[in-house]
# Entry
Amino acid sequence: MLVKQIMQAQVTTVGPNTSVRAAAALMLDRNIGALPVCTDGKPVGIVTDRDLAIRLLPNLGCFADRIIQSVMSHPVITCRADHDVVWAARLMGQHQVRRLAVCDDAGVLIGMLSLGDIARDASEELAGQALGETVEFR
# Structure
């Protein structure tokens, strides 16, 4: 099974200068836990609900007006739509991430693949193995 068969092709993104407040509101509105941060359609980072919680909550205050670039995770771990899902799951485990940005040959974001997508549409066992790797202490 290929990544393109199970990835989410409709992806909400933000730019590096988007405010944290706007990104959090967008996540709430769309009921999503991650936003790829793109410049010219290419992912330069990713911000997750966890990034917001662990990097901002301890020092809450005026930080909600900071730009997303200051809290995003980078580099972005990516795969291609024609990669095998098993390979993508291993990549998630290797880098201890739960989501991969799916890019075309030019590096432009075309979708997102999550452990949930793998569990739902490919293999719960494979997703479980990848999840085990992502939570393993290294």
